[in-house]
Amino acid sequence: MIQRFFIHGPLPGLNELIRAKGNTRYPAYNKLKREWMKTIQWELVAGKILPVSKAFFRFTWHEASRRRDLDNITAGGRKLILDALVLSGILSDDGWDEVSGWSDEFKICKTDPGVEVEMNEA
To answer: Kind and range of the H or E element at 107?
Structure first.
């Protein structure tokens, strides 16, 4: 079964997450992560995403420009998405037994940046 959902963004990249985690208590990181988890969970509910035991993911990243590095985009965004899937009960965990892999594609979309996620149950 293939399920799809779109998260309007852009999601924070790895650099933004690292900067937010830069102080010793991490309040900026916790706030940023909590806000994005809530946003992603709303998209999961709106998309009527059902739980799966194991999945392969296809991410299509829609960026407003070529300003951010590709690895920065995917590392931060993927972390938040997989964590939200676990928190929502869609995946029981985001380890080797639940995630069989992923692929990434990139597009420029100035009007609606974000990420389209295709989850193919393995």
So the answer is: strand 99-108
